Amino acid sequence: QVHLVQSGGGLVQAGGSLTLSCAASGGTFSRYNIGWLRQAPGRERELVGGITSSDSPYYTSAVKGRFTISRDSAKNTMYLQMNSLKPEDKAVYYCAADPQKPVAALTSLEYWGQGTQVTVSS
């Protein structure tokens, strides 16, 4: 059983940066599809981006060019580097992993972090 523990998040001004971390126990990220999703107030869950088990990254158009997803195999940790943050980026961010489905599937993913709040002030 894979357990994902998130850290990071908080309040930043528009244009600022934050890095979220997601550490895994009980599994190895290199053997899973991993990535990040978010849910903003009044909105449905949406994809942020992810990395497939073949190391192919992908991002939703809303964050492309501003956010970067990476993983450190030695630390079994994934990261979400968020730059040029906008007020519309305010959401609860979740890391997720699945042995078969890409995180872009959004639902029925096997493993989830606890979520962390990101708030961006204007």
Can you tell me the residue ranges where pLDDT is under 50 for at least 5 consecutive residues? none
Helical residues, percent: under 10%
**Strand-and-helix sequence, N→C?**
EEEEEEEEEEE
Rg estimate, integer Å: 13 Å
Largest sheet: 7 strands, mixed
Q: What's the total count of β strands?
A: 11
Number of helices: 0
User: What is the arithmetic mean of pLDDT?
Assistant: 93
SSE class: mainly beta
N- and C-termini, Cα separation: 40 Å
- Principal-axes shape call: globular
Strand percentage lies at over 45%
In short:
With 122 residues, the chain is mostly beta strands. Helix content is 0%, strand content 50%. The strands form 2 sheets. Strands 2, 4, 5, 6, 9, 10 and 11 form a 7-stranded mixed beta sheet that branches.
Describe the structure.
- The structure is a single chain.
- This protein is mostly beta strands and 122 residues long.
- Helix content is 0%, strand content 50%.
- It is built from no helices and eleven strands.
- The termini are far apart.
- The model has no long low-confidence stretch (mean pLDDT 93).
